[in-house]
UniProtKB/TrEMBL annotation:
<dbReference type="Pfam" id="PF09339">
    <property type="entry name" value="HTH_IclR"/>
</dbReference>
<dbReference type="InterPro" id="IPR014757">
    <property type="entry name" value="Tscrpt_reg_IclR_C"/>
</dbReference>
<feature type="domain" description="IclR-ED">
    <location>
        <begin position="60"/>
        <end position="238"/>
    </location>
</feature>
<dbReference type="InterPro" id="IPR050707">
    <property type="entry name" value="HTH_MetabolicPath_Reg"/>
</dbReference>
<feature type="domain" description="HTH iclR-type">
    <location>
        <begin position="1"/>
        <end position="59"/>
    </location>
</feature>
<keyword id="KW-0238">DNA-binding</keyword>
<dbReference type="Pfam" id="PF01614">
    <property type="entry name" value="IclR_C"/>
</dbReference>
<protein>
    <submittedName>
        <fullName>IclR family transcriptional regulator</fullName>
    </submittedName>
</protein>
<dbReference type="InterPro" id="IPR005471">
    <property type="entry name" value="Tscrpt_reg_IclR_N"/>
</dbReference>
Length: 240
């Protein structure tokens, strides 16, 4: 997905554009619906700007050179651990990173039972409504936590946490246990458990398992999630 997004941005180098969707589709060889979806994601991330029916370079373009390779390297390093986590649980697993106040999903492996989830590879969701997001937020520093708590808290379902005091307590519990929980806060009928991934003392990503609420068993899932996150953290530390 990130490679395709990069193909779209390549159309604008060194001074190309602005372009319509039909032009981007022709230049990249991607179907128009795919270009439309990726362009919308790039606009949200700030890499493209939309003016009417045309797209032009966004303010964040120059982050692409360092950001995309990092994400691709992280995904490649994480895949064995995601696959192990899937084999251990047979449930849907995620890998996500923080981008501002949102979590961006780099990978998702579907469980044997199809879940109706808002997460998708390359897509983003509010940090506070997801297990992956809360795991990242809990270990991203007090300044970000206070900024998030000071603003209106988004809601994806009636179960999303919109009370700052309740969210603060959940984040404190995550810092103590190293695990974040999400109970139908992103999708009804689905619960999630997540753990942060560290690189040099900084939380750079998080892994999660999402399951139907009817069979959500933290005691059984927590060891597998924690083991996968610790394993990936060791690999990232060893790479430097």
């Amino acid at each position: 997905m990130l490679e395709k997004a990069a193909d779209i941005l390549d159309c604008f180098r060194p001074s190309g554009g602005p372009y319509r969707l039909s032009e981007l589709s022709s230049r990249t060889g991607l179907p128009k619906p795919t270009v439309h979806r990726l362009a919308a994601d790039l606009v949200r991330l700030g890499w493209l700007e939309r003016s009417g029916t045309r797209y032009r370079l966004g303010a964040k373009l120059f982050e692409l050179g360092s950001l995309v390779p990092h994400r691709l390297d992280l995904r490649e390093a994480a895949l064995p651990f995601l696959q192990d986590l899937f084999e251990a649980t047979r449930e849907t697993v995620h890998l996500g990173i923080r981008d501002g106040m949102e979590v961006v999903y780099l990978e998702r492996i579907h469980g044997h039972e199809a879940l109706r989830l808002p997460s998708r590879i390359g897509g983003s969701l509010p940090l506070t409504c997801t297990g992956v997001g809360k795991a990242l937020l809990a270990f991203s520093g007090e300044e970000l936590t206070e900024e998030v708590l000071a603003g209106p808290l988004p809601s994806l379902t009636p179960h999303s946490i919109t009370d700052p005091d309740r969210l603060r307590m959940a984040l404190e519990k995550t810092r103590v246990s190293g695990l974040a929980y999400e109970e139908q806060e992103a999708a009804l009928g689905v619960s999630c458990i997540a753990a942060p991934v560290f690189e040099g003392g900084t939380a750079v990503a998080a892994l999660s398992v999402a399951v139907p609420r009817s069979r959500f068993s933290p005691a059984q899932l927590a060891p597998a999630v924690r083991t996968a996150a610790l394993g990936l953290s060791r690999v990232l530390r060893g790479a430097h």
